[in-house]
Amino acid sequence: MLKLQHTRSEFCIKGGVITRRGALFFIFMGILSILFAQEDVTVNGVTLITKVFPEGEKACAVVIEYPVEIDGQKLSPDQFSVKVKTSDTYSSRTITKVYANDNGDPSFSIFNNRGKYVVLELSPEDFHSNTIVFGPSFLNTRMELDYIVSQLVPIFDVNGNKVEPFTSKQTDEKHLIIDDFLAFTFKDPETGVEIPYRLFVPKDVNPDRKYPLVVFLHGAGERGTDNYLQVAGNRGAVVWAQPRYQVVHPCFVLAPQCPPNSSWSTLFTDRENPFNPEKPLLAVIKIIRKLLDEYNIDEKRVYITGLSMGGYGTWSAIMNFPELFAAAIPICGGGDVSKVERIKDIPIWVFHAEDDPVVPVENSRVLVKKLAEIGGKVRYTEYEKGFMEKHGWDPHGSWIPAYESQEVIEWLFEQSR
After folding, report:
1. Which CATH architecture has domain 45-176?
2. d(CA 76, CA 152)
3. Which of 1, 110, 252, 342 is the most buried (most CB within 10 A)?
4. Are 43 and 66 contacting, i.e. CB atoms less than 8 angstroms apart?
5. DSSP assignment of 238-301, as one string?
6. Which pLDDT value is given to residue 3?
7. Annotated domain spans of the chain
8. How many angstroms separate the Cα of 159 from the Cα of each of 108, 154, 163, 164, 380?
9. Nearest residue to 22 via CA among 13, 33, 31, 32
10. pTM, rounded to two decimals
11. SS3 label, residue 6
């Protein structure tokens, strides 16, 4: 006889037959197992988070939405796996931090490490963190992002219940700051040129107050019609919309996108005089004037900045429409020296790297020299040879340290016509 012990009763299995007492025990245990069984948990969604770093947009986090509150204090990076499709294979991303919260934002709080959202922060140093591919003919493309996220082992909710492993593809994307920009398209009635553009509108706009406008002209690589690359390729547009700057300097930000077969100036069409405005730039001027009519923008505080092809565009804009701008930050561009008298009274801060392999540094030097000679309001920052590479940046990318400088931000908002 095999005797099985229970808390209050004993029962027998004789010849394969369960006694009445034993049958009641199994029924009781079955009911308990139904009442206390942990249901399988299916996640509600997996959102990929991107952010524009100084070098451009990167995938920086994954947010998993669970149907139950997760105890974040018991989470660790080795419990998860994040892979991104590269060519025909999947490559691993490095998880640097894991925590839980109740809003799905990539922000950690030691005081509230629990919630239905689990955030997996990813290393921006990963080789496959970038979202943009630098293509030929100075035309870049944004990759179609394909991520797979796995929870490798059981984790626990706030009640101590197990949440079983899963594997899922991303179900959504969120783009920090970029998503705060509105998307529009402007068609010039005179030329027929269509310009996609993004517009950032400051939060809680006071109708009795006027706000500055910052215009950003992108480089040749971000030309296109997707109305995205010009705000994702670098921080030239999003830097002004950062919450920490908007708190102190709320402003509108305009980021137009140049068509793929054109330029802001005659840079690609007239080698003898590459500094005249092209149709897309003329359309941008019309967009600025349109915004001045539609929003409470301070016409005395319209600023413009641009890099590379956009640096040429910035010089062209202020030289041909000096009455419109209160200050300018042209970066690694070039302009018409014969027109510097027109911009003598515009505060200008010029940036260039001495060893820029794409746009000759002499372009900026000659303009700065001429402006200084006639008493212009010009400042010049030239990064010495080797400076950019020492920091891991391409020597052409002098906009990276320029836009990361808080002094530059503060200087711009001090200017007014």
Report:
1. Sandwich (2.60)
2. 11
3. 252
4. yes
5. GGGG-HHHHHHS--EEEEE---TT--SBGGGT-SS-TTSBPHHHHHHHHHHHHHHHHS-EEEEE
6. 34
7. 45-176, 178-414
8. 21, 14, 11, 14, 60
9. 13
10. 0.88
11. coil
The whole-number pLDDT of residue 207 equals 93
Count Cβ atoms within 10 A of the Cβ of residue 246 and give its class: 0-12 exposed, 13-18 middle, 19 or more buried.
middle
Count the neighbouring beta carbons within 10 Å of the beta carbon of residue 242: 15
Quickly tell me which residue has 């509230």 as its tokens: 112
The residue written with tokens 């939060």 in the block is: 203
Map tokens 């000096």 to a residue: 322
Strand order in the sheet with 17-18: 2-5, 10-14, 17-18
Phi, then psi, of 205 in degrees rounded to 5: -60, 130
Average pLDDT over residues 306-311: 98
pLDDT of residue 272: 85
Phi, psi values for residue 416, rounded to 5°: -155, 150
Two tokens at 389? 């590479």
Higher-pLDDT residue of 20 and 283 is: 283
Residue with tokens 């209160």: 326
Tell me how far apart the alpha carbons of residues 321 and 324 are, in angstroms, rounded to a whole number. 6
Q: How far is CA 123 from CA 60, 246, 372, in A?
A: 7, 27, 44
How far apart are alpha carbons 190 and 5 in whole angstroms? Answer: 93
Q: Which CATH superfamily is domain 178-414 in?
A: Alpha/Beta hydrolase fold, catalytic domain (3.40.50.1820)
